[in-house]
Write a structure and sequence with these properties.
Layout lengths: L9 H6 L5 H13 L1 H12 L8 E4 L7 E4 L2 E2 L1 H5 L4 H4 L3 E6 L5 E5 H19 L6 E5 L4 H13 L2 E4 L6 H11 L3 E5 L1 E4 L2 E4 L1 H10 L6 E5 L13 E3 H6 L10 E2 L5 E5 L7 E5 L2 H14 L7 E4 L6 H13 L3 E5 L10 H9 L3 E4 L1 H10 L14 E5 L5 H11 L5 E5 L33 E4 L12 E5 L9 E2 L3 H8 L4 E2 L2 E2 L1 E9 L5 E6 L3 E4 L2 E4 H9 L4 E11 L3 E10 L8 H12 L8 E4 L13 H9 L15 H13 L1
Parallel strand pairs: 4-17, 6-7, 6-8, 7-14, 8-11, 11-12, 16-17, 16-18, 18-19, 19-20, 31-32
Antiparallel strand pairs: 1-2, 3-13, 4-5, 9-10, 14-15, 15-23, 21-22, 22-26, 24-25, 26-27, 28-29, 30-31
Helix pairs in contact: 2-3, 6-7, 8-9, 11-12, 14-15, 19-20
The protein binds adenosine-5'-monophosphate-propyl ester (PRX).
C-alpha cells in the first residue's frame, strides 16, 4: 500500500464545508453517539417537507427499513421548485452536445419544461403515481427532464442504458411491467448520428406487452419506423402543454426509481430506491464530497443509464441547486483534449469520471491537459472501479495541477450515493484509496461473524447500520433482496448489508477497496454478472458448457474471458465473432468478450462444481496452485492450457 500522503490544499480547506479531520470526526462521532438524531437534524435542514415525518427510522421489519416515516415531500420540488425563488435565473442544466452545440437551461426554464412534460405524461398517457416508465434515452436534456417529470407525477422511472440490446430492454420492461417507454429517434456520437428507436421497436416485437405507448423525442431527425397509435412525437405534443403542474404528494418511502443491475445470478435485479432518503443523501454528498457552492459548475461524465448519472448528473446537483454539465459525446472526440477543452470553456469546478476514462485520456493524450486552462478545477473525482496509482498520479498532477483533491468515491447502485470517500478539505489522501466512510455511514471490514479484520487483512466490506439512501428492495422480489445483501454477514447476531466487495484497512485505518468477492465483474466500470453472460451464451444451440471470468485489462480494468465447450459436431470456426454477436444481441456491446477460447471440457470437481480459480489462473498466465488431483478429469488442465496458449499466440 502506498505510503504517500497528500494533504488537502489549505486554501481550499479554509472555504470548505468540512475543513479538517477534526471536523470530520466531530460529525462521524455525532452519528455514532446519536444515529437517529444525526439524520433527523440533516433531514429537517435539507428537505422541503410538505408534511413532517413522525419517526426517523423504523427498523421493525429489518432489513426492510423505513426512513422519515409518513413524511410527505416531492423529489422534483426538492430539485426544481424550491430553488425558483432565489435561483430562478441560475443555469440548472448546461448541455454540450457531441458536435459542440450548447444549451443553457435555467431553473426557471427547467421548471417550465418539467411541468409541460409532467402534464404530457398525465394527460396523454394517463401516467399516475406508482406507474413504471422506462427511459431508453441518449444524453440529452430531455432525459433529465423526463426523470424529473416522472418524479413530479409520482411515476417510477427505470432507465435502461442506451448500450443495452433489445432483448435486455425487453426483459427490463417486462420485469417492471412498465406502461410507457420514453426514447429518442437517436443521438450523435463521434460526429455521427446513431439510432435508438429501432431497438425499442425490436424489444417490443420480442415482448413487453405491458407497454401502451412509446414517446419519441426527435434529436437527430433520422428516418425511423413508426407504429401509428403506439408511437407519439414528443416535439409536437409538448408544444400545447401547460407549463403549470402541481406536484404529487409523495411519501418518504414511495419508490423514486428502479435501476437494474447485475448480481451473481443470471437475472438482473431491479434495485428500488426511495424518495426522501435517496434525495437527502444525494444532496448531502454533493455538499460534502464535491463541496459545491455558489456558482460552481459541476461535471459528471457518466451516462444517465447508470446510478452515477442518476445521482450525480441529475438528482444530487439539482437538489443542491448547482449547475450540472451534461455531455452527449465521448471525451476523446474529436480528440483527446475534448474533456479539457470543455473544462476550460465552461470553467468546470468539479470533474467526476471513471478510472477507465482517465486511463484512456492518459494514454491517448498525456500532454493534452497542459494545452488548456484548467485553473477552474477544485475537486476531481473517480468512481466505479479501483484506480491504479499511475492513473491516479497523472490525474492529480497533469489534470489537477497538484492542487485539487481527488475524491476516490466508493459506492454502488444499491447505496444510492457515496459511502466511502475522501472529503476534499479535510482528508489527507493516499493515492488509489477510498479513505474513510462518510459521516453517518458505518462501514466495517469484518468476517461473516462480524469480527473485525486486522490491519492488512482483507475482509467483507459491510455497512452495519441502515442509511437513508440504501436500496429498499429488489422490485417484486423481497426474498432475493434479503438473500443478496443480508445473508452473508452478521454483527451482534443481526444481519448486516454486505456489499459484495472486499476491502482492507491500513495502519492509519484507511480503507482500500480490493474488488468484488462474488461473481460480478467490472468492465470499464460496467458491472456484469458472470452468470448473466453465461446464461446468454448458453442460449446458443452449439454451446454445451461455458465459464466466464474477469481478467485484468490495462485500460478497462477487467475484460471478459470466456471458456466454451461446444456440442459434438458444432462448427468451431469463427467462434469468437459468433459468441460475441450472441452477447451483443442478448445483453449489448458492453458484454463482448476480449478472449473466447474453445476448450474440450471444464475443470470440475467430482460433484460437478467448476473450479473457477483454475480457469482464472490459466487465463492470467499464472501458476496453478490448487490441487488438481481431485478433479473429475485432471488431464483437462493441460488441455485447457494448450487451447489458451494457441489463442494467445
Ligand atoms: O466493486 C465496486 C466498484 O463498483 C461496484 C458497484 O458498481 P455499480 O453498482 O455499477 O456502481 C458503480 C458506480 C457507483 C462496487 O461494488 N466500485 C465502485 N466505486 C469504486 C469501486 N471499486 C473501487 N473503487 C471505487 N471507488
Amino acid at each position: 500500500m502506498s505510503k504517500e500522503v497528500f494533504n488537502p490544499n489549505p486554501e481550499f480547506s479554509k472555504q470548505a464545508r468540512v475543513k479538517s479531520m477534526d471536523e470530520y470526526w466531530e460529525l462521524q462521532n455525532r452519528a455514532k453517539d446519536d444515529y437517529e438524531g444525526f439524520w433527523d437534524g440533516f433531514a429537517k435542514e435539507k428537505i422541503d417537507w410538505i408534511e413532517p415525518y413522525n419517526k426517523v427510522l423504523d427498523e421493525s421489519k429489518a432489513p426492510f427499513y423505513k426512513w422519515f416515516v409518513d413524511g410527505k415531500m416531492n423529489v422534483c420540488n426538492q430539485c426544481v421548485d424550491r430553488h425558483l425563488k432565489d435561483k430562478g435565473d441560475k443555469i440548472a442544466i448546461l448541455f454540450e452536445g457531441d458536435k459542440g452545440d450548447v444549451e443553457k437551461i435555467t431553473y426557471n426554464d427547467l421548471s417550465k419544461r418539467v411541468n409541460k412534460f409532467a402534464n404530457l405524461l398525465k394527460e396523454n398517457f394517463g401516467i399516475k403515481k406508482g406507474d413504471r416508465v422506462v427511459l431508453y434515452m441518449p444524453m440529452i436534456p430531455e432525459a433529465a427532464i423526463a426523470m424529473l417529470a416522472c418524479a413530479r407525477v409520482g411515476a417510477i422511472h427505470s432507465i435502461v442504458f442506451g448500450g443495452f440490446s433489445a432483448e435486455a430492454l425487453k426483459d427490463r420492461i417486462e420485469d417492471a411491467s412498465a406502461k410507457l417507454v420514453i426514447t429518442a429517434d437517436g443521438a450523435f456520437r463521434k460526429g455521427k448520428p446513431y439510432l435508438l428507436k429501432p431497438v425499442v421497436d425490436e424489444a417490443l416485437s420480442l415482448g413487453g406487452k405491458s407497454i401502451e405507448a412509446v414517446l419519441v423525442v426527435k434529436r437527430n431527425n433520422e428516418e425511423i419506423a413508426w407504429v401509428d397509435g403506439r408511437d407519439h412525437n414528443f416535439n409536437e405534443l409538448i408544444e400545447a402543454k401547460s407549463d403549470i403542474c402541481d406536484f404529487e404528494l409523495m411519501d418518504s418511502e414511495d419508490p423514486l426509481f428502479l435501476l437494474y443491475t447485475s448480481g451473481s445470478t443470471g437475472k438482473p435485479k431491479g434495485v428500488q430506491h426511495s424518495s426522501a432518503g435517496y434525495i437527502l443523501w444525494a444532496q448531502m454528498t454533493m455538499e460534502w464530497v464535491f463541496d459545491v457552492k455558489g456558482d460552481d459548475i459541476f461535471w459528471c461524465t457518466a451516462d444517465i443509464g447508470w446510478i452515477t448519472g442518476h445521482t450525480y448528473i441529475v438528482y444530487g446537483p439539482l437538489a443542491a441547486g448547482t449547475t450540472t454539465l451534461m455531455f452527449e459525446g465521448v471525451p476523446t472526440y474529436p480528440d483527446a483534449g475534448r474533456a479539457w477543452k470543455m473544462v476550460e470553456t465552461h470553467k468546470v469546478n468539479q470533474f467526476y469520471t471513471a478510472p477507465t476514462a482517465i486511463r484512456v485520456l492518459h494514454k491517448m493524450g498525456e500532454n493534452e491537459p497542459s494545452k488548456y486552462d484548467l485553473s477552474s478545477l477544485k475537486v476531481l473525482g473517480t468512481v466505479g472501479e479501483p484506480i491504479d496509482p499511475p492513473a491516479w498520479k497523472w490525474y492529480y498532477e497533469a489534470v489537477g495541477g497538484s492542487k485539487c483533491a481527488i475524491v476516490d468515491t466508493w459506492w454502488q447502485t444499491e447505496t444510492g450515493g457515496h459511502m466511502i470517500s475522501p472529503i476534499p478539505g479535510a482528508t489527507p489522501i493516499k493515492p488509489a484509496c477510498a479513505t474513510f466512510a462518510l459521516p453517518g455511514i458505518m462501514a466495517e471490514i469484518i468476517n461473516s461473524d462480524g469480527e473485525p479484520k486486522e490491519v492488512g487483512e482483507t475482509g467483507l466490506l459491510c455497512i452495519t447500520k441502515p442509511w437513508p439512501s440504501m436500496i429498499r428492495t429488489i422490485w417484486n422480489d423481497d426474498e432475493r433482496y434479503v438473500k443478496s445483501y443480508f445473508s452473508d454477514a452478521k454483527k451482534d447476531g443481526k444481519a448486516v448489508y454486505f456489499s459484495g466487495d472486499g476491502a482492507v484497512l491500513d495502519e492509519d485505518n484507511y480503507i482500500t477497496i480490493t474488488g468484488r468477492v462474488d461473481d460480478v465483474i467490472n468492465v470499464s466500470g460496467h458491472r456484469m454478472g458472470t452468470a448473466e453472460i453465461e446464461a446468454a451464451v448458453k442460449k446458443d444451440d452449439s454451446v454445451a458448457e461455458v465459464a466466464v471470468i474477469g481478467v485484468p485489462h490495462e485500460i478497462k480494468g477487467e475484460s471478459i474471458f470466456i471458456y466454451v465447450v461446444l456440442k459434438d459436431g458444432s462448427n468451431s470456426e469463427d467462434i469468437k465473432s459468433h459468441i460475441n454477436s450472441i452477447l451483443s444481441d442478448e445483453i449489448g456491446n458492453i458484454a463482448k468478450a476480449d478472449d473466447i477460447v474453445e476448450v474440450p471440457g471444464l475443470p470440475k470437481t467430482r460433484s460437478g462444481k467448476i473450479m473457477r480459480r483454475i480457469l482464472r489462473a490459466i487465463a492470467k498466465g499464472e501458476e496453478i496452485t490448487q490441487d488438481t488431483s481431485t478433479l473429475e478429469d485432471p488431464s483437462i488442465v493441460a488441455k485447457i492450457e494448450d487451447a489458451v496458449a494457441k489463442v494467445k499466440k
